[in-house]
Specification:
alpha/beta; 5 strands; Zinc Finger, Delta Prime, domain 3; Helicase, Ruva Protein, domain 3; Rossmann fold
Amino acid sequence: MPKKNNIFLFYGEETYLAHQKLKLWREKFEEKYGGDMNIAQLEGKSLQAGVFESDIQSTPFLAEKRLVIVKDFLTKGTKEEQKKVAEILEKEVPDFCIVVFIENKMPDKRASLYKKLNKIGNLEEFTPLLGHGLSKWIMDKAKEKNIKIPMQIADYLGQVAGSDLWNLENELEKLKMYSREKPITKEVIDNLVHPNLTTTIFKFTDYLAQKNPKGSLHTLDILLESGEDIVKILFMIVRHFRILIQVKDLVDRGTRKPDIISKLKQHPYTITTTMQQSHNFSPQSLREIYRALLQIDIGLKTGKIRLLADDKKEILLALQQFVHTVCVQ
């Protein structure tokens, strides 16, 4: 069956880009067809196939086209309704109706509706921007906002804030209010931008590799000040070292990066940065670090390390002792 040029699915990890594209389409549609009278937006969680069918069959009012936007139906809609909609899409979408499905989470590619959309529709997956692509996006967005930021500083902003474009948009607004058309510097970013949790854990790991207790403890303080639960922070540190151990083992065996990405099923950026970090640790030091982190985790689960809603002193002390132990080995 040939693809239908009026059925679309926007999805992927980078929801900002998906929503920006939909926003542009909607603006162009309103401009061409006279406002939003012929636009319908349906919420997927409660959507019933009968309502969907009625909306796509409705004749446009004083216009040639109708736009139906369906939000989060593949991830929140019931399987029964999804199957019904899949059948409707194959048989009953009139040429005057443009149907756009948009998802805020990754859909299940095994589901009947995804398979049907993949077969008859037009799918666009939005993946996170990394490296030069992320820096270019920052530069372009800064230009829109009349923010002066050199490419090198844009690179640094991406490293500090991470690749979440929703967050970067907010951080750029903050920088715009502060700079008042003055060039953005590294010092300004350090003072104003809230560090990304994952990025900060990478930096924490770098300081541990350098056996730098001052830098490690300072970065740990930044993690704790992020507002995230301290147990989640511990979990993410443990997870990072678990991946680091696996990457180190594969690198030492001569495994190529694409094969490491495929085997560990991690994002390419995570594997790239972890491969770089793996050269700073010996297999034995990684095993000792991981063992020490697991002891903290076991202490929490057995009550040896007490954790109360208003008292996190014991787990904080355990993490500080962990830093000192690693840095003096």
